[in-house]
Amino acid sequence: MTSAREHPLYDILRRRIAIIDGAMGTTIRTYGMKEADIRGERFKDSKKDLLNNGDLFSLTQPKLIGDIHRRFLEAGADIIETNTFGATSITQSEFFVDDPREHGGRKDPAFYEKIIDDPFLGNLAWEINEQSAKQCRAWADRVANETGRPRFVAGAIGPLTVSLSNSPDADDPGFRVVTFDQVKAAYKQQARALIAGGVDLLLVETIFDSLNAKAALVAIREVFDEDGLSASDKELPLMISAAVGRGGETLISAQTTEAFWNAVAHAKPLSVGLNCSLGPDLMYPFLSELSEKADVAISCYPNAGLPNPLSETGFDLGPADMARYLGDFARAGLINIAGGCCGNTPDHIAAIAKALEGKPPREIGQIEAAA
Q1: By Cβ atoms counted within 10 A, which residue in 6, 50, 75, 128 is the most buried?
Q2: Of the candidates 246, 248, 302, the residue with the CA atom closest to the CA atom of residue 276
Q3: In the prediction, which pLDDT does 369 show?
Q4: Between the CA of residue 99 and those of 9, 46, 102, 196, what are the distances in Å?
Q5: DSSP for 288-299?
Q6: Taking the domains of the chain in order of start, what are their residue ranges?
């Protein structure tokens, strides 16, 4: 992959802590969208509920998504993510295909082979990724031109709704619902569409299953090789970020923080980090370990604490709380990229950006060693 020093973000990471945006899903919910809003005219006859399919808003409510990008950029984000966390044919099938388990069947590789080959799902996944990337690109460029400060678009690649590491059947531990090649195929389509839409980076995020992440990384590598993007000036840099549990393990594959880094280091990412998870306080020791072990930039964008249905955002921590925790991370010399995941609105990102202003980034020598 492109080395850290070959990418424009390197200069920012060398001089200061870069800011990544917050939670698209959380912020969408503050707009009070209803089922009819996400369906629009195009999906009005869909048989299943779509409101939790937030990626679909990029097609049915593009002005809403653009407004959220604008707000995160004006809050101080250097990097904004595309609205594509679940924009693969595999994940979209949850909203558009009948679940065979409801009729006495089961999801298995034969089922997912049909999903991968389904033209409707494939075209839908491509369109969501490409359009979301274009929307993100337009706002990043607009705000960059207005402020004279470069902004970057990260193509968000989520973890899927299936696992390659674990069986869902306690009586058949060797069973897997999906194959590595099927997951890779879904990710290849997503990566190609994000690149077609004009992203600057590819972000494999919220990794709970390292084997799923491996499939994403292999998919991206194959896209670069097959599409003539293997030259260092054409490859897009990678950001890689995992979700961890209380023991510091990726949640399903049960790898420790150090083992996770060893599993993805071969991809030579621009950054590796932790996001989502249990909130910043419980993330601290695992972020510290990753910062010590990894020789690339470190990113951190935690949930705003633990879920709380009585909170306005659905999570415990407000902007001032997140700013305090991320400020502590910066003072400890742990981070190069900071922001927020679930529960973090533009107000949270603005508070984090203000708290980190002037704080030195994690030692740049560690990044240079990898370049």
Answers
A1: 128
A2: 302
A3: 46
A4: 43, 15, 6, 32
A5: HHHHHH-SSEEE
A6: 4-370
